[in-house]
Design goal:
CATH topology of the largest domain: DNA Polymerase III, Chain A, domain 2
Number of strands: 27
Largest sheet: 9 strands, antiparallel
Helix content: 10-25%
Strand order of the largest sheet: 6-2-3-4-18-17-16-10-14
CATH architecture of the largest domain: Roll
Number of domains: 3
Distance between the termini: 76 Å
Structural class: alpha+beta
Low-confidence stretches: none
Number of helices: 6
CATH superfamily of the largest domain: DNA Polymerase III, subunit A, domain 2
Mean pLDDT: 90
Shape: elongated
Strand content: 35-45%
CATH class of the largest domain: Alpha Beta
């Protein structure tokens, strides 16, 4: 007995599979995580993946020659194997069929294979936000840029799970994203369109969303189009075109970011971001594993960057900022972290502010007042 039979173009199927595999967890002991549910209805085919913290759904509407449903039904198979198989097929029609067992037959001209699956009834539901969720909309290009500006600063350690996420804070029509690993901090903000005018426009909504999930979503976005976002107390949802992404909200107290901003300035300089980045990358090459980079004033209008490693060597390079004011500079930072920050700053000019050898550096893109970066200095004998 045929329980599912659909015919799709390889291009359409590969596009949908590529979108949903972004939500696959890196590792999980739950059998259904990493599985793909195909559900065929008269309206088309829905591809769904449910992971531990994020889930994805892609809608393939019925269309002659691209998506044709001969027999409605459902099947669950390993997503990565189906995606890699379809990705390697020649362009042309692909038939997916499930009969009495949980196996899925994959056939195209000259090829026929079978993937082992599980009972579709065991497949869990995606974490969809409830009706109390706040809804907003913003251009894909803006959202992608914001994620890229902050996601690099999330923590890679699970010792404080909340720091592996990005704090999304909505106040009125303004969305602010913040990420920190305790050493560096990145924040970006923009104006959005609230989709529920009846809701209190000044209501503040906060949710910490997994950084890996947001990075995967950003890779899906094209310059055109919009993303609709729903932020709830326990779940969040993103939707653009045929693709939807669902995520749990990370629990735990996020650090009070406003208290991390340093006080009065000791020194400040402004210069072209690409030139500063190139200098930092060159000098950091010889910094060794510790990536220690020293910045100090050598004469009026000149800052010297130095890196020294006993195993590699030493490199010094001078920069001449367009403007430099304040006290003499002497501070040490992680060179790799500084380079990452300058790449994410996404501007032609940056202003670097220093409040002391022990206080965070503040980096502000000159042409993006909604972005700000902090980088904690490295303690050395000179700064102790």
């Amino acid at each position: 007995m045929t329980l599912l039979r659909i015919h799709l173009s390889r291009t359409s199927l590969a596009e949908g599979l590529q979108a949903v595999v972004r939500a696959a967890p890196a590792a999980s002991s739950v059998p259904t995580h990493g599985g793909l549910r195909l559900e065929a209805s008269p309206d088309g085919v829905t591809l769904t993946m449910v992971g531990g913290i994020a889930s994805a759904r892609y809608e393939l509407p019925a269309e002659k020659g691209r998506v044709e449903v001969e027999r409605t039904g459902a099947a669950v198979v390993p997503a990565s194997y189906l995606y890699e198989l379809v990705r390697r097929l020649d362009d042309g029609p692909v038939t997916l069929e499930r009969t009495n067992s949980f196996h899925l037959t994959v056939a195209s001209p000259g090829m026929c294979g079978r993937l082992s699956g599980i009972d579709p009834d065991l497949f869990p539901q995606a974490p969809v936000p409830g009706p109390e969720a706040s809804a907003l909309r913003l251009p894909n290009s803006v959202l992608r840029r914001m994620i890229r500006q902050v996601a690099f600063a999330v923590s890679n350690s699970d010792s404080r799970p909340v720091l592996t996420g990005v704090l999304c804070r909505l106040v009125g029509h303004r969305l602010t994203m913040t990420a920190t690993d305790g050493v560096r901090l990145a924040t970006a903000s923009c104006e959005t369109e609230r989709l529920h005018p009846s809701a209190d426009p000044e209501q503040e909504v906060s949710a910490v969303l997994p950084g890996r999930m947001l990075t995967g979503w950003a890779r899906l976005l094209t310059d055109g189009g919009w993303t609709d976002i729903r932020l709830g107390p326990r779940e969040a949802a993103f939707q653009t075109g045929c693709t939807s992404l669902y995520s749990v909200v990370l629990t735990g107290a996020y650090p009070p970011v406003d208290k991390l901003l340093p006080g009065s300035l000791a020194a400040e300089w402004t210069m072209a971001a690409p030139a500063l980045l190139q200098t930092v990358e060159r000098v950091a090459l010889l910094a060794g594993k510790e990536a220690l980079l020293h910045l100090r004033s050598t004469e009026p209008g000149v800052i010297e960057l130095t890196a020294c490693s006993a195993d590699i060597g030493e490199l010094r390079e001078e920069i001449r900022p367009d403007s430099l004011s304040g006290e003499p500079i002497s501070v040490s930072v992680n060179g790799r972290y500084l380079a990452d920050t300058l790449r994410a700053a996404d501007g032609q000019r940056v202003t670097v502010q220093i409040t002391g050898s022990r206080s965070p550096l503040v980096i502000r893109p000159a042409d993006d007042p909604g972005s700000l970066y902090l980088l904690t200095p490295v303690r050395t004998r000179e700064s102790a």
